[in-house]
Structures are given as C-alpha cells and as structure tokens.
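Q: What would this chain look like folded?
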Amino acid sequence: MGSLDGLKILDFSTLLPGPYASLMLADMGAEVLKISAPDRYDLVLGMDPVIEGTDITATQAWLGRNKKTMLLDLKRPEGKEIVKQLILEYDIILEQFRPGVMDRLGLGYETLKEINPALIYCALTGYGQTGPMAGAAGHDINYMSRSGIISHAGRKSGGPSLMDFQVADIAVGSLNSVVGILAAVNYRHTTGKGQFVDISMMDGCVPFNSLSGANFLVSGTQPGREDQLLNGGSMYDYYETRDGEYMSVGALEPKFWAEFCKAMGCEDLIGLTSSPADLEPVKSRIRDLFKTKTKDEWTEIFSGFDACVEPVLNLKEALICDEQIKAREMVVDVDLPLHDGMKVKQMGTAIKLSECPCEYKYAGYPLGYHTKEIVEGLGLDYENLKAKGVLK
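A: My prediction, written as structure tokens:
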C-alpha cells in the first residue's frame, strides 16, 4: 500500500513543474490521470532523445511514470462534461494555466466546487492568482530574477550565471504544489471541505534569499556578489584542479576548516578561519594549491579528512558510478510499457518512507494511451466522441 493510496488526481499541467509534482504524488501511490490537449505541443515531453527501439521520449517516460494519460479537447462542450464527471472521482486537480484560463473554459474552481464541494484545486503559476503580474508569462530564469536571489548570485566579474537546472520550477513549483495539495488533503480529512491552492513560483523563490534576505529586511544593506558567507565572500567556493575539473569546499565551521587546512598542508591558516579578514591572498593561495593536483587526487586526499570537501561530479560520475547515489536508490530501472521486458533508467523520488516506500510500477505511456479506457469507464461512446474531435 502506498502512502497516498486513495488519492485521485487530474493533472492538466504541462512542461516541468506540474508534471514533476504529480510524478512525486504518483510514486507515493496516488492515482494520477494526465490530461493533455490533442493539438498542443509540450516542449518538455517532446524533447529528444527518443528511447531506442520506441517512439517515446526519455522525458515522457520519466514524467509520465505511474500515470494514466488521456487526450481531451477542453474547448468542446463534451470535453468539459467529461471533466465534470471525472471530478466526482478524481477530486484533486492540478493545473498550470495562466490565471483565468480555466474559468474561461468553464472549468474554474468556483464552477467545479459546485459539483464537488470536497474538490481540492491546485493552480500552479509563475506569479500567482493576484497582483499586477498575475497574467504575465515567465520561465524559471524570470521568477528567480524578480525574486531578488539572482542579484547576489554569480561573480563580480561576470554577473549572474546560468544554471542547467530548474530552481523555480522544481525546488519551488513542484515541491510547493505537493506540500499545498497534501496540506489541503489533511484539512479535508478533518473538515470535509475542499479548497483552492494558489502556488506561485516567484513567491516560492523569495524565501530562497534566506540568510541574506532576512538580514537585508533588518539592516537594509544590499548583499553583493562575492561578499557574503555563501556566495564567494569566504573560502566556501569551487576551486579548479590541475585537470580542469573542480572541487567544492564547504569548510565553514572551525573544526571543518582545521581539517581542510591540514589536508591542504596549510596548518598556518587554521587561525584565520574560513572567513579571513584579508580574503583574497588566502583564496589565491588555495586556488594555486588546488591546481597542483587532479580532481581524483584531491578526492583521494580528502577521503581521509572530515572537511566538507567533495568533487564536482559529472552526470556519469554521479548517476551511474557514485556509490552514495546507488545506495540511496536514486537511479532506478523501470519497466517500459508496451515493450515486453524492456527497462529504462530513471531518476527516483527522494522521499524515503519506511512503511510504504515509493513504487516505480511503470514508465510513461504514449500520450493519450488510456483515453478509450477512461471514456468508456464513464459509460460514454468513445467512437462517437472521437469522431467529433473531442478525443484523439
């Protein structure tokens, strides 16, 4: 039995934030039905590569894991009626349209809660349902930029740096959607009432200002690049090695700093701490020292010291070779539907529950695979609706 067995979710989301949220919920046992528009291309799900020997992409196989999938035209009256029937059973909705889109389709929260008052309706957007930017378009880079966190990230010489991972999308949008939905489920369990859950990706980036944000709100002092404890204004940083690779140094506390200095052969620096008053000469010395050995050599050296120093791993080193990631089962082999005996490697879910661990039952099906099953389960004429263009 999964921890979320019994929860049934209609997922109208696209791209990455919503689909990853519903993936986590599905891995924990929720039944997720992903509804996609027949004529709307999803940039993420259509992204190469296609898994060899199949016609499904790696991202569709991953983000569609443990979910059923249906193609449905929400602009047609028959499509709307199908949704209204489904919410009597799938009483949690996750959608990722701009504010007002579902209302204009006649499928907004106020309309649907009249049909099912216990409905939990999570709307995941860039800027939330209120405020002057509620209707604005955006992406991960925009939400982080407007939240303030990018103003004190990067280097003085080069400014902000692009990151090939999605902070606002996954660390904020996906995770806050999961938290919001489960909080609403608990409230419904107690009171019997559903509710609207408003998740904004920019909102969620604001607390990521963390220490610098809290300090600014009291002092009014703007943090700058490379002048704070964790953004380059201390020895906490990345250091290039002889082979052009990098080591990460997180030796902040005195005990870790002392171990770091011993490993580097710089015991004379122990008393200066990881935030020396005259930072640049110390940092320059450490940079030069790191360039005398390769990443593997430094990794071996630091394996004998409790110093919070680790190598920067590439994806092969991390996802295929790293023993910690293997031990934590963060890369799993998942059965690929419709291809007997074929498995695909995927990233797992990071929540570890002792009594009801996550299950990886099957990778994603092709979009729309379960449409006929779902429609006929409602007692409707699949062929007739397909002929009308409601389904595909």
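The first helix runs from residue 17 to 27.
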